[in-house]
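Lecture 7 notes: from sequence to structure.

We start with a single chain of 196 residues. Read the sequence below before looking at the structure.
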Amino acid sequence: MSKAKAGSARRTGVHRTVRARGGRQTAGMSRPEGRADFLARAWTMEVEAAERYASFADAMDEHNNREVAELFRKLARIEQLHADQLLEESRTKRAPAVPLRWDGGREGPETAAPEELHYRMQPYHALQIALACEKRANKFFAEFASKTTDAKVRKAAREMAAEEAEHVRLIEDWLKRTPPPDKDWEHDPDPPFVSD
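Now the structure, written as tokens:
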């Protein structure tokens, strides 16, 4: 699928980097810290995902692709709800004073890459993007649980991994009910024209 850029990443950071499918790099887990570190990472992942989905929705609006824009808005609301729930679980009930930064300017595990966006994409494509993000989030939390030495954090990370696994199942079910696009979905009989 040809891709159009929708924004720029602004994150740098703390973890080692692992190469994801398609050459995309995401933050990996090295040495997890305690509960505060876990909640900061989980909150940051959810906020970054919400922000990216919201920017995708705006980009789709610019291209008059209202159906996909609304789908991305719905995904943004879901991710923001998760971030809000994590804040409620934190002792301070406040966002981290200094937002967590991911390794070397890479994206957080649950953040979709801007290059995945296409102005003529269909809801099916948006759901495929979301599915990949949820799978990466599930893997991130499962790895966090396996590497931490703190039993309470391990339990919380396992719960988050299970929640992300449930999101994977929900999106897979949603995909089953969503018609795949036509083979020529990228074809635009009146493509955008840029002039100086």
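Helices lie at 35-62, 66-89, 123-147, 151-176. Keep this in mind for problem set 3.
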